[in-house]
Amino acid sequence: MNGRRRYSSSGGSCPATPSSYSSKTLTDRSSPTDTGKSSSFARWISGLFINCFTPPDSVSSKGFDDSEHDIRSRRSSTGSVQRHYHNGNANETENPRFTFDEIYDATKNFSPSFRIGQGGFGTVYKVKLRDGTIVAVKRAKKGTHGDTQGAEFVSEIQTLAQVTHLSLVRYYGFLVHNDEKILIVEYVPNGTLRDHLDCKDGKILDMATRLDIATDVAHAITYLHMYTQPPIIHRDIKASNILLTENFRAKVADFGFARLAPDSESGATHVSTQVKGTAGYLDPEYLTTYQLTVKSDVYSFGVLLVEILTGRRPIELSREQKERVTIRWAIKKFTNGDSISVLDPKLERSPANNLALEKVLEMAFQCLAPHRGSRPSMKKCSEILWGIRKDYRELLNTSL
């Protein structure tokens, strides 16, 4: 396995791989009260995009640079969106024009044979468009315009329209038509990080690949926190939301729970919000205070790091009581000087792997601090991981 090659565009043609565009998530403690009809919802969403739609480049960013785009959008009679961009001095039309007829035809009326994921939001299909582009089509459950799923759909399209980064799933467009809500995003062909930690395809992720994935995710979240305005809080960072390319590079997906952080100029430090996320990854301070900050993502990232190193899920009820909550078990082992015992048993015990384990665990536990003020920023996490990966490679090369 070559886990360290930088990948190219991931619109692959491999067979549909079950991916977790789906998730088991905590529900709202209360539901939104919007009960507008589908036609008014469609008009509203159209107006929203005409006024504030800022989609990404067709080519993903290679760093944290955030280019600006000017856009004119108009709805077609089928409910699709046609987009015209001005990027610098170039005047060009980018991204395909989506119609419901095309999506229906491509999925053979949403045949189960095209299904690659299922979750609370709805169903995800792998689709080949008329121009040959392979995309993932997220079809919302029917009758969800005024409930939680409807709100998540709006959240996801608003968020995806703002971002462009190599380690974030690329957004292509959306459709609202009658009682249908459809989101079209990049198809990432190699399943989820959770799939590979479980060795569903029989291959083991080596430590070098795991460090690459952790670094990719850290860069993606750093971009959301620091290089979007206002900052974006993902709120559902977890292994089943990390999609992998054919070259085993990570792309963060599923922005249904994302929220915009307070503008720094306003003086606000948090967003008061209904608690959302996934059990085992939730920031305990957010859970008790309802105050969401970028440090809530940092906590979830700390859980993810422990998951990457141990191979275990955050909560494993099948284990004995003292090992059921993975981070508590790992912290106790680390504190007792027995951190090597938490390393995924599928990985070799070697000087390079042991070094990476110690250093990443140390940073992960900083991310898991009970109070957000004690947690590092995602930018700091990215810098530390970059250094760990560099030291790991050097030690690995000297051991050969």
UniProtKB/TrEMBL annotation:
Region of interest called Disordered, as start-end residue ranges on this chain: 1-37, 61-92
SMART domains listed in its UniProt record: S_TKc
UniProtKB keywords: ATP-binding, Kinase, Nucleotide-binding, Serine/threonine-protein kinase, Transferase
Taxonomy, superkingdom: Eukaryota
Substrates-to-products reaction catalysed: L-seryl-[protein] + ATP = O-phospho-L-seryl-[protein] + ADP + H(+); L-threonyl-[protein] + ATP = O-phospho-L-threonyl-[protein] + ADP + H(+)
Skewed-composition ranges (Basic and acidic residues): 63-73
UniProt KW Zinc-finger keyword: no
Keyword tRNA processing attached: no
Biased composition (Polar residues): 16-37
Ranges where the Protein kinase domain occurs: 110-366
Listed EC numbers: 2.7.11.1
Binding site for ATP: K142
Top-tier EC class: transferase
GO MF annotations in UniProt: ATP binding; protein serine/threonine kinase activity
Subunit structure and binding partners: Interacts with calmodulin (CaM) in a Ca(2+)-dependent manner.
Family per record: Belongs to the protein kinase superfamily.
Protein name, per record: non-specific serine/threonine protein kinase
Originating species: Arabis nemorensis
Taxonomic classification: Eukaryota, Viridiplantae, Streptophyta, Embryophyta, Tracheophyta
